[in-house]
Amino acid sequence: MEKESSHSRIWKLLFQTAEALRNAHARTVAQTPMPEVTISQMRVMSCIFFSSTGSAKIKDIAAELGITSGGVSQIVDNLVKYGLVERRIDDNDRRAVSISLSPNGQRCRVEVGKTFTEIAGRMLDDVSEEKLCTVIEVLEKMLSVVQKERQLQERE
Q1: 122 φ, ψ to 5°?
Q2: Burial 59-85 (b: 16+ CB within 10 A, else e)
Q3: According to the model, what pLDDT value does residue 33 have?
Q4: I need a surface site. Which of 15, 24, 35, 98 has the fewest CB within 10 A?
Q5: Which neighbouring-strand residues pair with 101?
Q6: How far apart are CA 42 and CA 24, in angstroms?
Q7: How many CB atoms are located within 10 Å of the residue 99 CB?
Q8: Rama region for 83: left / alpha / beta (φ>0; ψ in -120 to 50; rest)
C-alpha cells in the first residue's frame, strides 16, 4: 500500500477540520437565541465579513462562491428577513446593489467570532505558540496562493 502524500493528507485534514468546526458551531448556535443560520447563509455572510469594504455585490459573492447570482439573491432575501444583512444602492454604480451587515448582523458576526475562537482554543489548547505561528504562516500562504489564482482567473 502506497504511503499518502503530504499534500493529500493536508487537504483531507483541512476539509475534515473545517467540517468539524462547522458542526461544532452548529451545535453551539443551536443552544443560543441567535437565529439559526445555514451554512449557505454563513458562506454569503463570510464574503461580507472578509470584504475590505464591509459590503459586497451579489455578482461578486456569486463569483466567490461559485453559485448563481439568483442563488445568492435567494439566500440574501432570507438574511434580510432575519435582519442580518441590508441591501443598499451602490454608491459607485446606481444600478448595482451592495449587501452589508445590519447592526444585528454585526452582533451575529461578533458572536460567531467568539464561538469559533472558543472552539479553536479548545482544539489548539495543547499546541505550543511556536507551532501555532507555523500553522498560521502556512494557512496564510495557502490563502494567498488561492487568492492570487482567483485574481488571475478573473482577468482571463
Answers
A1: -65, -40
A2: ebbbbbbebeeebbeebbebbeebebb
A3: 58
A4: 15
A5: 85
A6: 14
A7: 27
A8: left
Q: What pLDDT was estimated at residue 109?
A: 85
Residue 12 CB partners (closer than 8 Å, separation 6+): none
Lowest-confidence region among 21-35, 104-118, 135-149 = 21-35
Per-residue pLDDT tens over the stretch 72-102: 999 999 999 999 999 988 777 778 889 999 9
Q: Chain-centre distance of CA 90, in angstroms?
A: 22
CB proximity list for 79: less than 8 A, separation 6 or greater: 37, 41, 44, 45, 85, 105
Chain position carrying cell 432575519: 82
Q: Write down the pTM of the prediction.
A: 0.74
Q: Check if the beta carbon of residue 41 is closer than 8 Å to that of residue 73.
A: no
Strand, helix or coil for residue 105: helix
